[in-house]
């Protein structure tokens, strides 16, 4: 069967018709960042003649193995440095240019891909009448190593530059798929949300999107000197001195880079929680720390929808997991957040695994998101949410843990069967409510719907929509805790 054909500036693409939706997969938005293009800014893709098949997903960035078998639905996709591909879902029929939503996946900057089953865009396209785009970007040592101090040919924040390259491709080509390049919403979770914070502050991303949704992640970066130290440690593992011949970097195999990065990570973290691979304030691609840049108005006129899950930390600290030392966990959190001592605020939490989960939720996720929301209020409308949805009988989803909201946002609850979870009508109702709010935001820049009133966030009332079996607006939830955290983060 002949699939739908889109004519892009690089050539023709043949996708697949899947019911009421057309899908194009594995579209190259940049040249393969391999060989001498390793550790460099992404380059435009090459044009092709004829019609290119776009029925299958492209390779994913090299990443640690999916030990639980849930990341890619039990399958093992091809891993490769040649990973810069995007995917597009569109309604099969539409009358006018449609708003575009670009999903930036999470995974602590070391795992994930736009091809993960839970990110399937069918419902957004068919029910929401939006163009849904998912993207890959370079991860781990290939995408987030501060290489620019070691040669002008190298880039830093390679993964973020990949995201910008994807957004540039969308701006140039999305009209061929029925999308409106002047109505682009970026949305992402965890590292994807932290990426959006960085994109708000990056000069090269200016004008590439009009709305932003940030799920469970605010500004998170390394200072330049720390990034340089980590890069030098990776070079040392590869046998290259800081002033050595860095032109050799393109001669190593992917496996050698990955193995060196693993050795370096173990040496620098000692096995504790930490994020060595993440955006870096390099003074060039990312000139200013994102939280400060937003406070200074760099994201002027970009409406923001932002929120967290009630029990984020319970994904990382659980009863069945080996209990981490509280002081060590606190020290790691201080390093990740770049704060001074957290001992005073930590005195308000128990030293059990539950206390460690709660302090991670409150400080790393919720507190920083509230701060970012407050900073943006002067420049554009802001809406705040909290996801409280749980599955009481499930060993992990009995809490509203980190990333639990994603399948609700995408209205893809069937993915929960991979986690051995039963799907109930109240869960489907919650998915529809949340899904509709994201769609409304993409269409109108306001997530309120006829079913759910959602007041804008402000410093006086702090209206927060609590997504749960009984979704409702709560004003300044956990007010005293919020004030205590704000004092520490100030």
Automatic annotation (TrEMBL):
EC number(s) stated in the UniProt entry for this protein: 3.1.1.-
Gene that encodes it: pnbA_1
Domain of life: Bacteria
InterPro entries per the UniProt record, alphabetical: AB_hydrolase_fold, CarbesteraseB, Carboxylesterase_B_AS, Carboxylesterase_B_CS, Type-B_Carboxylest/Lipase
Descriptive protein name: Carboxylic ester hydrolase
Signal peptide boundaries: none
Family label: Belongs to the type-B carboxylesterase/lipase family.
Enzyme superclass (EC): hydrolase
Domain Carboxylesterase type B: 5-472
GO molecular function, one term: hydrolase activity
Keywords assigned: Hydrolase
Residue segments, region Disordered: 52-73
Entry keyword annotation includes Metal-binding: no
């Amino acid at each position: 069967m002949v699939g739908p054909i889109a004519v892009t500036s690089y050539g023709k693409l043949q996708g697949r018709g899947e019911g009421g939706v057309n899908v194009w997969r594995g579209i190259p938005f940049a040249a393969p960042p391999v060989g001498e293009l390793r550790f460099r800014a992404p380059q435009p893709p090459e044009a092709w003649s004829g019609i290119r098949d776009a029925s299958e997903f492209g390779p994913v960035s090299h990443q640690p193995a999916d030990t639980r078998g849930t990341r890619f639905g039990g399958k093992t996709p091809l891993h490769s440095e040649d990973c810069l591909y995007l995917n597009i879902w569109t309604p099969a029929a539409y009358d006018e240019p449609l708003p575009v939503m670009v999903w930036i996946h999470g995974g602590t900057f070391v795992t994930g891909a736009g091809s993960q089953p839970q990110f399937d865009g069918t419902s957004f396209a068919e029910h929401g009448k939006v163009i849904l785009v998912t993207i890959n970007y370079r991860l781990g040592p290939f995408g987030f190593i501060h290489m620019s101090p070691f040669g002008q040919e190298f880039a830093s924040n390679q993964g973020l530059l990949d995201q910008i390259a994807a957004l540039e491709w969308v701006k140039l080509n999305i009209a061929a798929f029925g999308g409106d390049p002047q109505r682009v919403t970026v949305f992402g979770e965890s590292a994807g949300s932290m990426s959006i914070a960085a994109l708000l502050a990056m000069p090269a991303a200016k004008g590439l999107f009009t709305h932003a949704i940030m799920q469970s992640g605010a500004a998170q970066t390394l200072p330049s000197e720390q990034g340089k130290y980590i890069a030098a440690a990776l070079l040392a593992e590869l046998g290259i001195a800081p002033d050595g011949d860095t032109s050799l970097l393109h001669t190593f195999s992917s496996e050698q880079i990955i193995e060196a990065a693993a050795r370096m990570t173990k040496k620098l973290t000692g096995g504790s929680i930490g994020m060595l691979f993440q955006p870096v304030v390099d003074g060039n691609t990312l000139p200013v720390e994102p939280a400060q840049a937003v406070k200074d108005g760099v994201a002027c006129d970009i409406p923001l929808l932002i929120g967290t899950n009630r029990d984020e930390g319970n994904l990382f600290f659980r009863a069945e997991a080996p209990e981490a030392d509280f002081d060590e966990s606190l020290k790691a959190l201080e390093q990740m957040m770049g704060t001074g001592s957290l001992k005073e605020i930590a005195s308000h939490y128990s030293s059990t695994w539950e206390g460690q989960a709660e302090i991670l939720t409150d400080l790393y996720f919720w507190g920083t998101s509230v701060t970012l929301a407050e900073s943006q209020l002067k420049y554009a409308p802001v809406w705040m949410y909290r996801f409280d949805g749980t599955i009481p009988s499930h060993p992990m989803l009995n809490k509203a843990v980190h990333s639990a909201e994603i399948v609700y946002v995408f209205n893809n609850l069937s993915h929960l069967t991979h986690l051995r979870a039963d799907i109930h009508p109240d869960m489907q109702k919650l998915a529809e409510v949340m899904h509709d709010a994201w769609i409304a935001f993409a269409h109108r820049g306001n997530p309120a719907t006829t079913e759910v009133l959602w007041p804008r966030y402000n410093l006086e009332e702090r209206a927060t929509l609590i997504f749960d079996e009984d979704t409702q607006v709560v004003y300044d939830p956990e007010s005293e805790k919020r004030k205590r955290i704000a004092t520490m983060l100030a």
